[in-house]
TrEMBL record:
Domain Ribbon-helix-helix protein CopG span(s) in chain numbering: 4-41
Stretches assigned to coiled coil: none
Organism lineage string: Bacteria, Pseudomonadati, Nitrospinota/Tectimicrobiota group, Candidatus Tectimicrobiota
Protein name: Ribbon-helix-helix protein, CopG family
BP terms from Gene Ontology: regulation of DNA-templated transcription
Length: 77
């Protein structure tokens, strides 16, 4: 593992210290988890943007999924 120095606002550090005390963890562990979650969100947003761009380039046609309509019939309940 590598040590990284960061500059944070005092109020943010106080909030983090409060949360890590409640969770019974450390600043470092909490920060690693938060950064992993942030990276996952960035990747998810990038995929969503790719999907939007793909559908903008090649929009769904009205009858594109009509072959599957019979497959979606659930029958009587």
């Amino acid at each position: 593992m590598r040590t990284v120095q960061m500059t944070l606002d005092d109020t943010l550090v106080q909030e983090i210290d409060h949360v890590v005390k409640q969770l019974g963890t450390t600043r470092s562990a909490f920060t690693r988890q938060a950064l992993r979650a942030a990276l996952a969100q960035v990747r998810r947003q990038a995929r969503e943007q790719q999907h939007r761009e793909g559908y903008a380039r090649l929009p769904v046609t009205l009858d594109e999924f009509s072959n599957w309509e019979d497959e979606h019939v659930w029958g009587e309940l």
